[in-house]
Each structure stands twice: as structure tokens, then as C-alpha cells.
Write a structure and sequence with these properties.
By secondary structure, this protein is an alpha+beta fold. It has nine helices and twelve strands. The protein has a four-stranded antiparallel beta sheet. It has a two-stranded antiparallel sheet with strand order 1-2. A hairpin with a 2-residue loop joins strand 1 and strand 2.
């Protein structure tokens, strides 16, 4: 069932994304040759009108192939008026941006359905996913070292920490060992020494083990969106969508600036695992997860990186400013660099997924 729920999730995300490209291409008069869910070899397909609709073997993506998209593609004079590369820049930008926009539409529809049934939408504030301290326990190592509520731990023993899980793991793995901790208080960095208190606990298998605790709790601050009537559902759903978009952009900015740990980044394995867990909780959790992933996909796709939609928009904007497109050589080189960066990112998130999910599973099921 894990794979089933993951396929439904990926299918919805890909379908809405490519549907956006497809609908806008049709609206502005561009001929669409192919609409594919998935990459690679075709599993099934059928041509309806001028477009072939197909399901392909690799479900981690999809594509819409318009006529005349490839540089140097040979076209008859009759075909040129409906070819992608012969359209005004604004039409091509509209086609490209429609994919991410439709991912936002998917999230908006899910939020609207939730609110219509009086189900709330929770949006965590940035403090909730960082190392901001909510409470410090009396007479704890943290209090004795001088930590206070709203302090933000930024480094331990010279290594930066950007998320609570990573920070807590370091304290847990060092019971009785003095650690050098840097934290931020009112935009000033303060350095202290702290020794996690050794505490005996039971792990998931029921075995006793000694861990370190310093006596702090995580800050949980959440904005709850609710609707009072069906009339305000569209407005409240839009408010929820906007809130999640802002949070996603903040996370991306903090990841690139280094103030949030890159270990937070997950990939397809994490998504598959999380989708199955959400589905096991119920429809609300599962579709809420789909909405959040759809928003993340939209925002990330708009980054100005070649091979992503944002990269295409960047090149088209440059073309609009220059009055002519960049050369095929420049575009080809940029796409190669973008593809290399994308492959590096994919490798990194799969590594993160392996460390976070696969290794613990192997340790639990094969090594014990």
C-alpha cells in the first residue's frame, strides 16, 4: 500500500502540473504533440486529435511536448504559426509558468474542500522548524548554562545546526560530555559551555540506553486558518495558500543561506514514506500532505535554475529584454549546467533519505 499511496500522490502532482502547461498551450494556439505522465518508455497511450496521451514507465515526473519546442526543429511554413518557438515571448512565458500555477491550484482546491467541511488548516511559523527554544526547565543544564526562552542555538562544537532534530541528536549522543554551544539572543551570538545530563531511556526495541538531555523544549507556534461560512471559504483557502507559500520561500532562503540545515531536505524516498504514514492516519492528513508537497513543487520549480520552469522563464525574460533569444550554444551549455546541478541535488536528497529512512530500517529489521 505504501507504493500505491505514493503513486496517487505523484500522479496528482504531475497531472496538475502538466495540465497547466497543456491548457495554456491550447489556449494560446500552440499545437501539443504529446502529454505524458511519467518519463521513459511508454506503457500505454492513445492519440486523440492532434495530441498523444500516454503513461510512461518512470512515475517521478511528466512532460508536455509542444510543436517546435526543440531548437533547430524542422517545421513547415504551415506549422510555424502554431509552433512554440515562433510564439511571442509572453505566450511562451504563460505556458511555462502555468505548470507551477496549477500546482498551487491543486493546493488551493484541497484547502477549499477542507474549509468547506469545517476542517482547519495549520501553518507552522518559522520558529517551529528551527532551533528556537520555547521553555528551559528549572535546575537543568540549560538553565545553569544561561539559556533562556526564545534563544536560538546556531552551533555546537563549531558545527552549525539548523534544525531541532539535528541539534537534539547531538545532545543525545553526548551524555556527560562538555559541549561548546553558540546561540543567538536578540541578534547577538553568545558562546557557552554545557554538559548534557546522562539519562537512561528505552529505545524502540525496549533496550535501555544512556542519552544526553539539557532540559529545553521546542517552540511550537502555528497559525490556524478556519472558515466561518461557505462564503469566506475562497478567501480563507487563499490565505492558507499564501501562508504556506511564504513559509516555503522562507525555508528555501534559509537553506541557501545556511541558517537551516540541508539535512532537512528530503527526496522521493522520504515522500513515499511520508505519504504512506499520512494515508494511514486518514484522508485529511494525506491530502494535506499532498497540498503541502504541491506548494513546495511550485515554489522550487520557479527557481531560476536551467531545466526547471524558473530557468525557462529566466531565459525568456532575457530574450524579451534583448529583443532576441540567446544562442543555441549558450542555452545548451546552461541546460547542461542546470542538469548537473539537478543531478547533484537528487543525489544529495537520496543520500539524506537513505541516512534518515533506509539505514534505520536496515538496522531494525536486518541487523538486530
Amino acid at each position: 500500500m505504501t507504493i500505491f499511496w505514493a503513486l496517487i500522490l505523484f500522479g496528482l502532482l504531475i497531472f496538475f502540473h502538466e495540465l497547466g502547461h497543456f491548457i495554456v498551450a491550447k489556449l494560446v494556439g500552440v499545437k501539443v504533440l504529446k502529454f505524458s505522465l511519467g518519463f521513459g518508455p511508454k506503457i500505454i497511450g492513445k492519440k486523440i486529435g492532434e495530441t498523444e496521451y500516454q503513461l510512461s514507465a518512470v512515475p517521478l515526473g511528466g512532460y508536455v511536448k509542444p510543436l517546435g519546442e526543440e531548437p533547430g526543429e524542422e517545421l513547415s511554413e504551415e506549422d510555424k504559426p502554431r509552433a512554440f518557438n515562433f510564439q511571442p515571448v509572453w505566450k511562451r512565458i504563460a505556458i511555462v509558468v502555468a505548470g507551477p500555477v496549477f500546482n498551487l491550484v491543486l493546493a488551493l482546491l484541497i484547502f477549499a474542500v477542507f474549509l468547506s467541511f469545517k476542517l482547519p488548516i495549520a501553518i507552522p511559523e518559522m520558529d517551529s522548524i528551527t532551533t528556537t527554544i520555547e521553555n528551559v526547565m528549572p535546575d537543568s543544564p540549560a538553565e545553569k548554562a544561561g539559556l533562556q526562552s526564545n534563544d536560538i542555538i546556531v552551533a555546537i562544537d563549531g558545527s552549525s545546526v539548523g534544525d531541532w532534530t539535528e541539534m537534539a541528536e547531538i545532545f543525545s549522543n553526548n551524555p556527560g560530555k562538555e559541549l561548546h554551544v553558540d546561540f543567538s539572543r536578540e541578534k547577538e551570538i553568545v558562546s557557552i559551555k554545557i554538559t548534557p545530563l546522562a539519562k537512561s531511556v528505552k529505545d524502540a526495541a525496549g533496550n535501555e540506553k544512556v542519552v544526553g538531555r539539557i532540559g529545553i523544549s521546542k517552540k511550537y507556534s502555528t497559525n490556524i486558518i478556519e472558515s466561518s461560512s461557505l462564503l469566506d471559504v475562497p478567501f480563507k483557502a487563499t490565505e492558507a495558500l499564501w501562508g504556506w507559500c511564504v513559509l516555503t520561500i522562507e525555508v528555501v532562503v534559509k537553506l541557501f543561506s545556511g541558517s537551516l540545515s540541508a539535512k532537512q531536505v528530503g527526496g522521493p524516498i522520504l515522500i513515499v514514506d511520508a505519504a504512506a504514514k499520512a494515508a494511514s492516519i486518514g484522508a485529511y492528513a494525506y491530502f494535506n500532505f499532498i497540498a503541502i508537497i504541491s506548494i513546495n513543487l511550485a515554489v522550487l520549480n520557479l527557481l531560476p535554475v536551467p531545466v526547471l520552469d524558473g530557468g525557462h522563464i529566466m531565459f525568456l525574460s532575457i530574450e524579451a529584454l534583448r529583443g532576441k533569444p540567446l544562442s543555441d550554444k549558450v542555452l545548451m551549455m546552461a541546460n547542461k549546467v542546470g542538469l548537473a546541478l539537478l543531478l547533484l541535488l537528487i543525489s544529495f536528497v537520496i543520500y539524506n533519505d537513505t541516512i534518515r529512512i533506509i539505514v534505520p530500517w536496515l538496522q531494525k529489521n536486518l541487523l538486530n
